[in-house]
Protein 1
Amino acid sequence: MKRKPTINKDFTSVEELQIRIKKLEQDVKVLNKLYFINDIYHDVSITESCKKLGITRVTGHNWLNQWNEGGFDSLGRKSGSGGQSKLTPEQKEELSEIIIENEIYSSKQVLELIKEKFNVEYSIRQVERILRDLKFGYGKPYTIYSKMPEDAEESLKKNFKE
């Protein structure tokens, strides 16, 4: 039987670890672009350099164009390159107020609200991201057993004290 390995979690949180991984992945992408540019400086053909790095020729030409337009600075990820939100900041603020006023508790209800109020379609996953950005937490819903006695909480507390 295999034993589960132990890990010292005192050094960093999972969130910080994921942020560092994402940053290093970006650094590797920039490093690959620099390898490509270095090959071009050394008269290696675009096709040969692309094969070596495992990229398409179109990607190679895009990297070369980026380099020709701005050098080192143009090879990194552009800020704000994630795409434009379908909801404006004002609409998101209004959505937040509606959620609080109407005590909406599920992502599915928010999804329907966005569709009705703002005529915008999102996936349920994207609605969860929007809710997280608006500082709304969420918890997993739990089922209530139908045959549970009405005073179950009191009897649990009573039994726990004994």
Note: The mean pLDDT is 83.
Protein 2
Amino acid sequence: MLEFLPSADDVIAAKMGGHISKAEMEEMFDRIEAAIDANEKTHLFFEIGDYEGFDTEGFGQQMARGWQMVGKLDRFGRVAVVSDTRWIRWATRIESALLPGIAYETYTMDERDQALAWVEGKEELPHRPSFKIIETDSPDVLGFELNGKISADELDAVAEHFNDRLEHGQPKRLLGRIKSYRGLAPAGLMDEDFWAMKRDMIRTLDRYAVVGAPRWMQTMIQALDPMFRVEVRCFESEEEADAWAWLEAEPQSERLIAA
């Protein structure tokens, strides 16, 4: 099933689920090709639910039409794929790495409105700010909250903030509150200042409390713990007060580090 959503001429927005027929695939190509011919940039929004595949009849012809579009990559703008299915989001990230120059973003269903607003140009940033700084009543204790996907601008701001604190001999103890973690923006993987800051932070800290981390993250932290001199403890979300007590500090204020 393929359902097209109301959109501007330069936006193709569609909901996909179940089995996609040959006729629906052809209509999708028709709409995209028409938009490319009529607009300087064409933006795409795909909301994918319980996807079960597509008709293989005429697959070769559809592949040929797809390759023709590869030659017009400079005519594509913002692309958002919204799905709660992990393999679809991973496949999208792989595809985005193979198609340089296109602003490709993935979202879960609860981020659907943000994704559509970004594709339509109503939101400048693809994701809402995800990183908060938590100030405490102790100059040697600092906290942060992570909730979402970390943008390249946030990584720069985080690196700058923590490097400034490190230059002044702070902090000695750190709390990380993990509400959700959806990865780094692709540019963040190459951010040398951010990774250098993390290395310096590990050398400085003596205690690090991680609150609310998913199980896979807790397992990774516990596996890496013997490699570092810092003492790391994981706490469940409802145990945050215990984490602050272990750090011997209390939270005072919170603020987004980048907008």
Note: Helices lie at 22-38, 59-70, 86-98, 112-119, 152-167, 192-204, 215-224, 240-247.
Protein 3
Amino acid sequence: MKTLGTAGALGSATALTACSTTVNVSASPTTRATPFQIAATTIPIVGSNEVFPVRRIYCIGRNYAAHAREMGSDPTREPPFFFQKPTDAIQFVPPGQTVDHPYPPLTKNYHYEIELVAALKSGGRNIAMADALSHVYGYALGLDMTRRDLQRAMGDEKKPWEIGKSFDRSAPIGPIHRVGQTGHFSKGRIQLLVNGNVKQNADLNQMIWNVAEQISKLSEAFELMAGDIIYSGTPENVGPVVRGDLMTGKLEGLPDLNVKVV
């Protein structure tokens, strides 16, 4: 879901003294207009007229042992790693509705990954694990859609694989449920069905790194802030979908996520 946001930039006046190389810069008191508007990315908040503004989308890779093995990794030795998606990867999926999801260009092997998503209300650097959950505003259910053939091809060439992960509408997501409504998710059945057939089926307690640990680890590399959301990893049995397939995401305590590939 997108709403128009107004962007602004502070202008600056630069004065050069006649006989000096010193540059004096002073901020203009007037905010300059921008030549165009950029849509702000937001997600509706359940039980409220407010929306959650998305600043950054972080995703953790290979956070379930069985999924790590199916991707060719050893979960007993690998530290957590993260990647990002652009905010316009968000595609909001209202509860009780089925949303059309366009099959993206360039790929012939388009994969689903169902995940719990944590939304932050605050942040910081080097957050202690004991304090990490205090920064969580709420939770949602989401899909980390992946152009697997492009991701693997780039990985084989030792090149960044954003093209496989960071593209338009690659992050379908349901509404944000505040922590006071759901509590924190440490366990619960998470599933992904395709045309009614169960493809992914696991429990959140099988995550290698729980949400608190993810927040703490992320904050060692980035300054986390309000508006950041974290896709917390997917179980095993990721697989392809084609046009016409209906994906249904399920997580105990949250409404289903229904997305049809078109």
Note: The radius of gyration is 21 Å.
